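batch_manifest entry 22 of 60
target: Flagellar biosynthetic protein FliQ
source organism: Candidatus Dactylopiibacterium carminicum
requested by: lab member K.T.
priority: normal
notes from requester: please return C-alpha cells only, no post-processing; we will run our own comparison against the previous entry in this batch. if the run fails, retry once and flag.
--- input ---
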Amino acid sequence: MTPTTVLEIGRGALEAGLFVAAPMLIAALVTGLIVSILQAATQINEMTLSFVPKLLAMFVMLLFAGPWMITTMTDYIRRLYEAIPTLIG
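--- output ---
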C-alpha cells in the first residue's frame, strides 16, 4: 500500500465522517444560537437552559437524517471493503 493510497483512504474517512456529523452539528449550532439570542433578550443566564433544546433538536435531526446517515456510512464501508483486494495485491 502506497502513502497516496493511505492518504486517499484517510481523506475518504474524514469526508464521510464530516458528511454524517454535519446535520447534527448544524442542528446544535442553530439551536444554540437561537437559545443564546433568547437568553440575551430576556437576560436569563442559565447555562443548563440550552442543553434540552439542543438535545431535542439533535434528536429530531437524527429522526429525519438518520436513514441518510446510515446509508452514507454503509456505502463508504462497502466501498472500503470492496477495495481490500486491490489494496493488498
